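Form 7-S
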Amino acid sequence: MNKQALINSLKQKGFSRRILNAFEKVKRENFIPDKLKKYAYEDTALPIGEAQTISQPYTIAMMLSMLELKKGQKVLELGSGCGYVLALISEIVGDKGRVYGIERIKELAEKSKNNLKDYKNIVSYNQNGSKGLKEKAPFDRILISAACEKISKTIQNQLKDNGILVAPVGSRYEQTLVAIKKIKNNYTIKEEIPGFVFVPFIEG
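Output:
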């Protein structure tokens, strides 16, 4: 599959023009190992080293859709890997938006910083993400890009009022994508979509 075929596939699945535009602008091949570049626009997850993967484009588009991103928002991604999703979020929130990523694996965090060097509105950190990023909180949106058995209150509390958090929640072998909205310090499940598999979120 080439890039246009992937975009057409995502379009047929009903994703918004803003999400499609982000996929058109960001070069997925820049975020994967050289030997896998020929598979860059296959709608599948690919290994990026350190036993981690870059998620399937359809899965990423689904998470971005559930986040309901808007221009100018401040967004945190935990488990940001090679930086591909950070770049997509950056395109959607625009120059006035702020995007923060946390990746605990040093080698991936370093690759991510190199991959994202031309993005002025992204800051990525090499640290453990289990406590979120309190010093930059609160956030309009939080994305956890790794499987959680449950979503910690510490991370939920870093949402702004009316903020949305999206995460894959479940066992190690299958998760449900869950969107949670914070309204006056109450957390409501807004949407649930089952049938996903992510690498595990490492606590501590």
